[in-house]
Amino acid sequence: MTTVRIVSARSDDLGRYIDLLEEVADWLAARGIKQWRPGNFRLSAGYYAQSIELGEVQLAFIGDELVGTLRFLLHEPIVWPEIVEADAVYVYNLAVRRAWASKRLGSQMLEWAEDRARSLGRKYVRLDCMSDNHFLREYYVQAGFEERGEIDAPFPAPVGTLRLRRYEKPVKAPMSLHVHIRPEEHGDVRDIWHITKQAFAGRPYADGTEQDIIDLLRDQGALAISLVAEYRGKVVGHVAFSPAVPEDLSSGWYTLGPVSVQPDVQRQGIGKALIRAGIARLRELDAAGCIVLGDTNYYSQFGFDKAPELAPSGEPAEYFMVLCLGSQVPECKIGFHHAFHHVSKNKG
User: Nearest to residue 239, comparing CAs of 214, 218, 264?
Assistant: First the structure.
């Protein structure tokens, strides 16, 4: 599955944001789907500029390409006038560029909205569509939303009054698995290999060698930190940290990864707990910092910052991130332990 990176729009994004909405509006109109009237978004550019300033507009990227968008609101008095309690978030103008359709990007954006709602302590995600838009009505039901009646919603010009069907989805509470995080032991090696292989299987960014990289790091004494998550006596997750290699040969830099969680217990905070525990151990070692190559939206929550200028040659710079743990700020490129390249080079 292709993973999107979702960020808040800035004022200079208004033009391409409107272009994306108009592109989707034209596509819907050409197929007789009554949802958005072509041209209305351009006429309402001032309204959407204000929405960007309020932090409501979110943009979805794959790499540097804008592929989708949504608006994320904390209240909506026009479509849900009877709601007085701040118990929900509201999703509007959900759109995916047509070249990226059928990639589950819409589902990922709705999952992102639910995650945000959960973090804000909101109970529901709410949205709507035109009452006669059977395509979206079916899509929302399949996404787990339930119908909550219709309303004639009085929007300001140029939109006017719209007959809308409303939908609501309860925010799932995160399942709490009480895992025990501890250093790797000799008897964990086989479990770590299998969990890593399963976790990375089929991922578009994986090459199938992740479990072998861990083995080689271990064999070469370069598995600086190796932690497992144990649930009911069974290993269900793992994270590795190995020495990184700055071009100036300065010491104290480490690489995060691979990190893996058994597929049937993913999305329950185990990976985050492993990463945080590993970073805490790096601080105990007085480490200078840590690098990672991955989803910038995900790793930023641990304090990593994008640093494409420090990425070693041959690596996708847009996914390269750095976490400084001391006063030392890197001024040169930082590479990975040779085990990462040796295993991939000799794959097969």
Answer: 214
pLDDT one-digit tens code per residue, 231-256: 988 999 999 999 999 999 899 999 99
Distance CA 244, CA 246 (A): 6
| Domains of the chain from N-terminus onward | 5-170 (3.40.630.30), 180-345 (3.40.630.30)
Q: What is the pLDDT averaged over residues 88-96?
A: 97
Distances, alpha carbon 123 to alpha carbons 56, 89, 94, 176, 305, in Å: 19, 8, 20, 17, 31
Q: Please give the Cα distance from 319 to 283 (Å, whole number).
A: 23
Q: Which residues contact 3 (CB under 8 A, 6 or more apart)?
A: 62, 108, 204, 205, 295
Distance CA(107)–CA(86), nearest Å, equals 24
pLDDT above 70 for 174? no
Asked whether residue 87 carries a pLDDT value surpassing 60, the answer given is: yes
By the 8 A CB rule, do 270 and 288 touch? no
DSSP reduced 3-state for 11? helix
State the burial class of residue 214 (Cβ atoms within 10 Å of its Cβ: 0-12, 13-18, 19+): buried
Question: Using CA atoms in the order 181, 182, 184, 189, what is the torsion angle rounded to 10 degrees?
Answer: -40
Q: What is the pLDDT of residue 21?
A: 97
Q: Where on the phi/psi map is residue 88: left (φ > 0), alpha (ψ -120 to 50), or beta?
A: beta
Least confident range of 4-8, 56-60, 271-275 = 4-8
The reported pTM is 0.55
